[in-house]
Amino acid sequence: MTQSIVVQVGQCGNQVGCRFWDLALREHAHVNKKGVYDEALGSFFRNVDSRYCHPWGQRSTCTLAVLVDMEEGVVNQIVQGPLRDLFDTTQLLTDVSGSGNNWAVGHMTYGSAYRDQIVEKVRRAAEHCDCLQCFFLIHSMGGGTGSGLGTRVLGLLEEEFPEVCRIVTSVYPSDEDDVITSPYNSVLAMRELTEHADCVLPVENQSLVEILTRVRLLSRAPGPGVKADLISSPGGGPEKPFDSMNNIIANLLLNLTSSARFEGCLNMDLNEISMNLVPFPRLHYLVPSLAPLYSLQADCSMAPRRPDQMFSDVFSKDHQLIRADPRRSLYLACALLGRGDLLLSDLRRNIHRLRSSLSFVSWNPEGWKTSLCSVAPVGHTHSLLALANNTCVKGTFSALRDRYARLYRKKAHLHHYLQEEGMELSLFSQASESLSSLIEEYDLLDRASSSCPHDAPRLQIAT
Amino acid sequence: MSIVTVQLGQCGNQVGQELFDVICKDARDGQKRGYSDASTARFFHETTTGDLTSRAVLIDMEPKVINHSMSKAAKSGRWRYGEKSHFSQKQGSGNNWANGYCVHGPRHREAMEDLVRREVERCDRLAGVVTMMSVAGGTGSGVGTYVTQCLREVYPNSFILNHLTWPYDSGEVIVQNYNSVLTLSHLYGLSDAILVHENDTVHRICAQLLNIKHISFGDVNRVIAHQLASVLQPALTTDSYGDYSRNPLGELVSSLACHPEYKLLSVCGIPQVASSSMAYSVFSWPGLLKHLRQMLISNTKMEEGIDWQVRAPPVHCGGAEWAHSFRTTGFNRSLANLLILRGKDVFSAEADGFQDAALYTSWLPPREAFSMWKSPVSFNQYEKSATLVSNSQTLLKPLDNMVRKAWNMFASRAYIHQYTKFGIAEEDFLDSFTSLEQVISSYTQLC
Ligand SMILES: Nc1nc2c(ncn2[C@@H]2O[C@H](COP(=O)(O)OP(=O)(O)O)[C@@H](O)[C@H]2O)c(=O)[nH]1
Ligand SMILES: Nc1nc2c(ncn2[C@@H]2O[C@H](COP(=O)(O)OP(=O)(O)O)[C@@H](O)[C@H]2O)c(=O)[nH]1
Ligand SMILES: [Mg+2]
């Protein structure tokens, strides 16, 4: 059994991470009714005190996680909240003053100040692992800590653990984000993701908001006062603003890691994800989509999805976690990760059924990777996660570049960045060039796909 | 004579387990002492307590599959794997041939070689080594290639037969064609013969002949194991004078893989029916052999949908002309065939149809191109059964497809960075493509 370490950075990173741990623990408790520390649990948790064999008892199970934030609020809430026993203080790193939504403060100033401590904490977590396979970094793109320090951590992970796969979950700001500098922060962070991550799962807050709006319509509850209570946290407690949104992201992570946590007849190793889905090193952005999605919300009384419906869902626009329509763009590769009672024949039948409505790049017409994990999410009989390496992702990137350009043209707020030690104007231009060339790479693929596919002329052999 | 089997990766370890299961059942059910004893000596050794232990080495880079296969074997109550005959690590090869071949292989060379050596030393007489693996993943393909290379060095004079499972057309490993091309091109220079099962073909047998609804790897593996066991179980050759204890690998290689350019062997068997309908089926040798011959020349891998229109072309036929006629008539030319007949009245069976010069190339006369083994012991519930191992153009099309798809991907250099990261360069790919194009060309021009 291999292990993975979750590194959650900044407000968003820690809030999403917290939802993930809550749901993961719930899932294991559901499967493992005897409550003994088992191998499945060992992939993301460690047994701290063998005197207590009951993993969800007091202080006997600890997460393989490192929590980083440059203010205390969120982390304090976590360590005082219902999940407190899952973390011990050696895993936490906080400061008091925050990054002021400034990438340079997070990346440069805090990055340099806390470099050694971060490495130390990650190393300590790694020492608990028998075979460390993967890092999951969770952060937002729009703020200062997650975006700046988070991407600094990514670079450190690459330096210190070059062989360990780095999968990043990045929350992209919505158009009307309350953080004015979010385009700067996001573009600066993008370059780091493009250069140092093995895979990035982009999630757009706007997309999550729209999904939740649809849930409200579906549940036909009037007005905004609807109680979007999710699969509620163990201690109950009042709902925080982002909880419903984070619940969706946490479910994405649950599905992604299920194969590593449980048995299945068609297991997918985490390192197979990048091997199969990333044909070119920079093009490692994988658009996630989930089914069921709407019934994740407890207040939504939707009928359970039949398997075939789920397969259609994950390709539809309304189920993507970024605002994009993969069916109208080009697939480089696609993974389908099923859970629960799905069969191999369900996978084959549905791929066959849907294949003709999707366009794949000419050199990868059969670019499917599939996996099945026998354990379904709590409360469901089956679920499906699709990861699409699809050129539709460039829409999100272009919109970001445009918003960045509007801000940069006015040189707005630049001085706040440049006053940080190590921050230079050239980093802005390099970051925006990196983004432009990324968009261009997707464009090229799109353009090439419009010409008729043909076989490459074969090697000639002298006979 | 004994065979040491090396099972590698998920597929190799799952198929291998089924193979020993079939062999063990068949040897126990067999009436003839000589047959049973030869089979047991070939594939098992007896522990001091009298338990049958397979002469197998299990290798994987992750523990789950090996654990599963070992406990399945132990549960059978008939045989088991050697307590210490396995090697596993914690993290798989991630579908990457280069990871298996360049990293895992060299890193664990000594441990893996030791395990094989121990099994070899346990054999009174070694017939050779059979390795079993898939070509599409990372461990079986990459580590399997590496291990084959080591065995070739350590046992330069032993026979090495690679049993390979070729992947489904799509759906499992996106880089499967790269991994397959790298595996096949390397093995071609190392192996004495390469025996291939295609998952798509076996899957169709499960669906159409065995009427299995939800087909699992278990079902597929049982069909593969059945066919493979029918080849490897003891049989009598024309000059063995009733002695079952011959070298099956040596004889297989010398009858089928007589030319270094041609090493790809396929298998088909008849009859293959659901056990439920077995009781109602009556088979005669002439009937079985007539079907099997037509399956061979029309390139049909199972006894359903045989194209009876296909005929062998007249004996004297030029190359270019012939290539044309292949497309129009679908005739499958053989370099060599080995027919294995098992069961009742086997010595009365005539195989004239397979001795027809029109089936073979002009440069190898039928008396050399065709061999036959027989055993009066009926195999695995079948009163009469015939298995054909064929070195023919059958695998040309799937091989060509594999190379074509991999080449299309390579033209865009897609996924290449995943391989260079472990030390496989673009030139290595080019070498592999070149050598397989050579194989394709050789088989295409067979006449
Ligand atoms: N989905 C989600 N987005 C969040 C959450 N918290 C903050 N954000 C978004 O993240 C961005 C601000 O980054 P934040 O994580 O607060 O800053 P940091 O603490 O400096 O990393 C804005 O785009 C917010 O909309 C959260 O819990 N969930
Ligand atoms: N017939 C058969 N094919 C298998 C089995 N397991 C995996 N495969 C095939 O093997 C390929 C994947 O390789 P696998 O053996 O899982 O990878 P490895 O463990 O890295 O060697 C795919 O083409 C699968 O179709 C099995 O039990 N039986
Ligand atoms: Mg596998």
TrEMBL record, chain A:
Primary localization: cytoplasm
Chloroplast found in the keyword field: no
Source superkingdom: Eukaryota
InterPro entries cross-referenced by the UniProt entry: Epsilon_tubulin, Tub_FtsZ_C, Tubulin, Tubulin/FtsZ_2-layer-sand-dom, Tubulin/FtsZ_GTPase_sf, Tubulin_C, Tubulin_CS, Tubulin_FtsZ_GTPase
Pfam family, one: Tubulin
Keywords, in A-Z order: Cytoplasm, Cytoskeleton, GTP-binding, Microtubule, Nucleotide-binding
GO molecular function: GTP binding
One GO cellular component term: microtubule
Annotated Tubulin/FtsZ 2-layer sandwich domain residues: 266-402
SMART domains per the UniProt record, alphabetical: Tubulin, Tubulin_C
Domain (Tubulin/FtsZ GTPase): residue spans on this chain: 57-264
Keyword Cytoplasm tagged: yes
PROSITE patterns linked to this entry: TUBULIN
Biological process, per Gene Ontology: microtubule-based process
Localisation per UniProt entry: Cytoplasm, Cytoskeleton
Family membership noted in the UniProt record: Belongs to the tubulin family.
Name under which the protein is recorded: Tubulin epsilon 1
Organism ancestry: Eukaryota, Metazoa, Chordata, Craniata, Vertebrata
UniProtKB/TrEMBL annotation, chain B:
Keyword field contains Manganese: no
Domain Tubulin/FtsZ GTPase intervals: 40-240
Residues annotated as transmembrane: none
GO biological process: cell projection organization; microtubule-based process
One Pfam family, short name: Tubulin
MF terms (GO), sorted A to Z: GTP binding; structural constituent of cytoskeleton
Record GO cellular component, one term: nucleus
Keywords attached to this entry: Cell projection, Cilium biogenesis/degradation, Cytoplasm, Cytoskeleton, GTP-binding, Microtubule, Nucleotide-binding, Nucleus
UniProt-annotated location(s): Cell projection, Cilium; Cytoplasm, Cytoskeleton, Microtubule organizing center, Centrosome, Centriole; Nucleus
Keyword Disulfide bond: no
Function according to Swiss-Prot or TrEMBL: Acts as a positive regulator of hedgehog signaling and regulates ciliary function.
Family per similarity comment: Belongs to the tubulin family.
Name of this chain's protein: Tubulin delta chain
